[in-house]
Amino acid sequence: MTNKRIVLTAYGSYGDIHPYMAIALELQARGHHAVIATSELYRYKIEAEGIEFSPVRYDSPIDMQQDGEFIGILSEFRRESEYTICYLLMPHLRATYNALVDAVRGADLLLTHHLSFAGSLVAAKTGIPWVSTVLSPILFMSAYDSQTLSTTTISPYEQALAVVANDSRLRQFRWQTRLWSAPVRQLRRELGLPPGDDPVFEGQHSPDLVLALFSQVLASPQPDWHSQTQVTGFPFYDRAKQEDLSDQLAQFLDAGSPPIVFTLGSLMVWTPGNFYLEGAIAAQQLGYRAVLLVGKGVPNLPLEQLPKGVIVLDYAPHSQIFPHAAAIVHHGGVGTTGQALRAGRPMLVIPYAHDQPDNAMRLVRLGVARTLARHEYSANTVAAELKQLLFEPRYGIKAAEVGKLVHQEDGVAAASDAIERYLRSKG
Known about the structure:
Blueprint: E1 5-9, H1 14-29, E2 33-38, H2 43-48, E3 52-55, H3 64-75, H4 80-89, H5 93-104, E4 109-112, H6 117-126, E5 130-134, H7 156-176, H8 182-190, E6 210-212, E7 229-231, H9 247-254, E8 260-263, H10 275-285, E9 290-293, E10 310-313, H11 318-321, E11 327-330, H12 334-343, E12 347-349, H13 356-366, E13 369-371, H14 379-391, H15 393-408, H16 411-425
Parallel strand pairs: 1-2, 1-4, 2-3, 4-5, 5-6, 6-7, 8-9, 8-11, 9-10, 11-12, 12-13
Helix pairs in contact: 1-16, 5-6, 10-14, 12-15, 14-15
């Protein structure tokens, strides 16, 4: 295939940006020219990988710490999605649209993140071939595949009733959120475009190709998914050759038995609450060491209160540290979830916001994890859950089985293959 210019646009934390960086690097290795259009926050990281960067106004005047803290508060009221869409994204819709129009000039394809609301407008206005993506299963909003469905075997009749109930809840949610996308509808009219589907729902999906950038073990296609969906597997952004474990961490791991690893990713780490301190105490109660990945510049831990056998680090590559863990305690972000699944280690998931509660329930159904509500998190409750994970063999056995399946997938290659097939179909 001749060289193509492909623009990938995304919004969010590192967990949102990394999959597109992985795909961009693979496309460039195949001879294409990839451009990532996103916030200035990520310019240095993207350009350091030799990927062209195009600035798009996604970022808000709120800094990462304030953003994380506020989303943490909103998650208690289940309003974090409303805040993200209505207050972080929609006020910049016009600026984002204009920037993205500039970015796709001369391009052969636009690939969009599910929150790239300007992307569908740019595709409709310019006629550029468009591929959309989904990072987490919940974004398909399926009545057939919901965390509300029982984790135990139920009869076909009960299953049908559950689907009807889920469909009713989704319709109610659609009605409650109908005003979230009003700025998109208004801009469509100003651009002379016909009314489109709601961009929060089916309007986020390309009519030609939707890439589900997660593993089949997490979710498989459902009757109400977009018919052009392809599940690729996780597109892991692994810079393992450049990111080895630090000498300090390597020495810690060599000095004893496998530890329990605690991490909150790159956004929820700004609103940790008692996650690290209580987690470290729980590990000690069970006779385990602990690795705390607390992020850079986050609120300081009371180090003097931490028990022995604990190491505190700003960061360690998940692909490198997770395979050394006895168990992994995390927030359920899809990027962290993918790495933990591939590592083949049992998990305790403490969901905070967004897709995390749904991811947590999927992991529980899969038999590789247990979950605990954030408000129930304490040393004693964490120790009780970890005791089940660590001392009941079924969790470790199932996690190892699933890890082998995820290892066999190549989400980056599968996504890139699908993109190239689509481009060939467009001539």
